[in-house]
Protein backbone atom coordinates (compact mmCIF):
# COMPACT_ATOMS: atom_id res chain seq x y z
CA UNK A 1 0.00 0.00 0.00
CA UNK A 2 1.31 3.42 -0.84
CA UNK A 3 2.06 5.79 2.02
CA UNK A 4 2.51 9.53 2.05
CA UNK A 5 4.94 11.25 4.44
CA UNK A 6 2.19 11.81 6.99
CA UNK A 7 0.98 8.19 6.84
CA UNK A 8 4.32 6.47 7.48
CA UNK A 9 4.78 4.72 10.81
CA UNK A 10 7.55 6.14 13.05
CA UNK A 11 9.78 3.11 12.39
CA UNK A 12 9.30 3.39 8.61
CA UNK A 13 10.03 7.10 8.76
CA UNK A 14 13.17 6.44 10.78
CA UNK A 15 14.45 3.76 8.38
CA UNK A 16 13.86 5.92 5.32
CA UNK A 17 15.41 9.03 6.87
CA UNK A 18 18.46 7.02 7.95
CA UNK A 19 18.90 5.80 4.36
CA UNK A 20 18.42 9.32 3.01
CA UNK A 21 20.98 10.75 5.46
CA UNK A 22 23.47 8.19 4.14
CA UNK A 23 22.74 9.49 0.61
CA UNK A 24 23.20 13.09 1.78
CA UNK A 25 26.54 12.22 3.40
CA UNK A 26 27.95 10.46 0.35
CA UNK A 27 26.66 13.11 -2.05
CA UNK A 28 28.23 15.84 0.08
CA UNK A 29 31.61 14.12 0.37
CA UNK A 30 31.55 13.55 -3.38
CA UNK A 31 30.74 17.24 -3.94
CA UNK A 32 34.02 18.23 -2.27
CA UNK A 33 35.91 15.38 -3.93
CA UNK A 34 34.82 16.62 -7.32
CA UNK A 35 35.60 20.26 -6.55
CA UNK A 36 39.01 19.25 -5.23
CA UNK A 37 39.73 17.49 -8.54
CA UNK A 38 38.30 20.45 -10.49
CA UNK A 39 40.97 22.62 -8.85
CA UNK A 40 43.91 20.25 -9.01
CA UNK A 41 43.54 18.31 -12.25
CA UNK A 42 46.41 18.70 -14.74
CA UNK A 43 47.37 17.32 -18.13
CA UNK A 44 46.22 17.45 -21.73
CA UNK A 45 42.58 16.78 -20.75
CA UNK A 46 42.57 19.67 -18.28
CA UNK A 47 39.78 21.65 -20.00
CA UNK A 48 37.37 18.76 -20.43
CA UNK A 49 37.92 17.36 -16.95
CA UNK A 50 37.93 20.75 -15.22
CA UNK A 51 34.48 21.35 -16.79
CA UNK A 52 33.11 17.87 -16.13
CA UNK A 53 34.21 17.93 -12.47
CA UNK A 54 32.42 21.29 -12.13
CA UNK A 55 29.21 19.86 -13.63
CA UNK A 56 29.42 17.04 -11.10
CA UNK A 57 29.92 19.17 -8.00
CA UNK A 58 27.20 21.61 -9.10
CA UNK A 59 24.79 18.71 -9.59
CA UNK A 60 25.73 17.18 -6.24
CA UNK A 61 25.35 20.47 -4.38
CA UNK A 62 21.72 20.74 -5.53
CA UNK A 63 21.10 17.04 -4.91
CA UNK A 64 22.32 17.03 -1.31
CA UNK A 65 19.80 19.79 -0.59
CA UNK A 66 16.95 17.90 -2.29
CA UNK A 67 17.76 14.70 -0.38
CA UNK A 68 18.12 16.49 2.98
CA UNK A 69 14.87 18.38 2.43
CA UNK A 70 13.12 15.07 1.71
CA UNK A 71 14.28 14.00 5.18
CA UNK A 72 12.60 17.13 6.57
CA UNK A 73 9.40 16.50 4.58
CA UNK A 74 9.31 13.07 6.23
CA UNK A 75 9.65 14.66 9.67
CA UNK A 76 13.23 13.53 10.29
CA UNK A 77 16.49 15.22 11.25
CA UNK A 78 18.78 16.14 8.36
CA UNK A 79 22.36 15.42 9.41
CA UNK A 80 24.37 18.46 8.36
CA UNK A 81 27.71 17.97 10.11
CA UNK A 82 30.72 17.31 7.91
CA UNK A 83 32.48 15.18 10.53
CA UNK A 84 29.47 12.87 10.79
CA UNK A 85 29.12 12.74 7.01
CA UNK A 86 32.76 11.73 6.58
CA UNK A 87 32.42 9.12 9.29
CA UNK A 88 29.45 7.37 7.72
CA UNK A 89 30.22 7.96 4.01
CA UNK A 90 31.45 5.04 1.89
CA UNK A 91 32.95 7.71 -0.41
CA UNK A 92 36.27 8.91 1.04
CA UNK A 93 38.08 12.22 0.81
CA UNK A 94 41.20 12.53 -1.35
CA UNK A 95 44.24 14.79 -1.00
CA UNK A 96 43.95 15.94 -4.63
CA UNK A 97 47.45 14.84 -5.56
CA UNK A 98 46.87 12.37 -8.39
CA UNK A 99 47.02 11.96 -12.14
CA UNK A 100 43.96 12.86 -14.19
CA UNK A 101 43.37 9.14 -14.78
CA UNK A 102 43.36 8.35 -11.07
CA UNK A 103 41.03 11.29 -10.41
CA UNK A 104 38.60 10.07 -13.08
CA UNK A 105 38.65 6.51 -11.75
CA UNK A 106 38.28 7.68 -8.13
CA UNK A 107 35.33 9.87 -8.98
CA UNK A 108 33.71 7.16 -11.15
CA UNK A 109 33.97 4.72 -8.24
CA UNK A 110 32.39 7.35 -5.98
CA UNK A 111 29.51 7.62 -8.45
CA UNK A 112 29.06 3.82 -8.37
CA UNK A 113 29.03 3.87 -4.57
CA UNK A 114 26.42 6.62 -4.34
CA UNK A 115 24.27 4.95 -7.02
CA UNK A 116 24.31 1.75 -4.95
CA UNK A 117 23.36 3.65 -1.78
CA UNK A 118 20.52 5.34 -3.64
CA UNK A 119 19.30 2.04 -5.10
CA UNK A 120 19.26 0.64 -1.56
CA UNK A 121 17.35 3.70 -0.39
CA UNK A 122 14.80 3.24 -3.19
CA UNK A 123 14.31 -0.38 -2.07
CA UNK A 124 13.78 0.65 1.58
CA UNK A 125 11.29 3.33 0.50
CA UNK A 126 9.46 0.78 -1.69
CA UNK A 127 9.30 -1.68 1.19
CA UNK A 128 7.40 0.94 3.20
CA UNK A 129 5.19 2.10 0.32
CA UNK A 130 6.90 5.51 0.15
CA UNK A 131 6.78 5.93 -3.62
CA UNK A 132 7.74 9.59 -3.56
CA UNK A 133 11.07 8.95 -1.80
CA UNK A 134 11.54 5.92 -4.03
CA UNK A 135 11.14 8.13 -7.11
CA UNK A 136 13.68 10.66 -5.83
CA UNK A 137 16.22 7.96 -5.01
CA UNK A 138 15.78 6.26 -8.39
CA UNK A 139 16.14 9.54 -10.28
CA UNK A 140 19.30 10.42 -8.36
CA UNK A 141 20.77 6.96 -8.82
CA UNK A 142 20.35 7.29 -12.58
CA UNK A 143 22.22 10.61 -12.56
CA UNK A 144 25.17 9.05 -10.72
CA UNK A 145 25.34 6.12 -13.12
CA UNK A 146 25.37 8.59 -16.01
CA UNK A 147 28.24 10.51 -14.41
CA UNK A 148 30.12 7.22 -13.93
CA UNK A 149 29.82 6.61 -17.68
CA UNK A 150 30.79 10.21 -18.60
CA UNK A 151 33.90 9.87 -16.43
CA UNK A 152 34.96 6.42 -17.61
CA UNK A 153 34.52 7.43 -21.27
CA UNK A 154 37.66 9.54 -20.76
CA UNK A 155 39.68 6.45 -19.93
CA UNK A 156 39.15 4.86 -23.38
FE1 LIG B 1 35.98 26.71 -10.72
From TrEMBL:
<dbReference type="InterPro" id="IPR002177">
    <property type="entry name" value="DPS_DNA-bd"/>
</dbReference>
<dbReference type="InterPro" id="IPR008331">
    <property type="entry name" value="Ferritin_DPS_dom"/>
</dbReference>
<feature type="domain" description="Ferritin/DPS">
    <location>
        <begin position="18"/>
        <end position="156"/>
    </location>
</feature>
<dbReference type="Pfam" id="PF00210">
    <property type="entry name" value="Ferritin"/>
</dbReference>
<comment type="similarity">
    <text>Belongs to the Dps family.</text>
</comment>
<protein>
    <submittedName>
        <fullName>Starvation-inducible DNA-binding protein</fullName>
    </submittedName>
</protein>
<dbReference type="InterPro" id="IPR012347">
    <property type="entry name" value="Ferritin-like"/>
</dbReference>
<dbReference type="GO" id="GO:0008199">
    <property type="term" value="F:ferric iron binding"/>
</dbReference>
<dbReference type="InterPro" id="IPR009078">
    <property type="entry name" value="Ferritin-like_SF"/>
</dbReference>
<dbReference type="GO" id="GO:0003677">
    <property type="term" value="F:DNA binding"/>
</dbReference>
<keyword id="KW-0238">DNA-binding</keyword>
Amino acid sequence: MTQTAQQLTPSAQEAICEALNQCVAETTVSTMLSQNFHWNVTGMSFGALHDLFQKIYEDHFVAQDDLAERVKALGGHAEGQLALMLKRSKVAEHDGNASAEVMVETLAKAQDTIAATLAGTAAIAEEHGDLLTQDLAIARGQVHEKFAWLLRAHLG
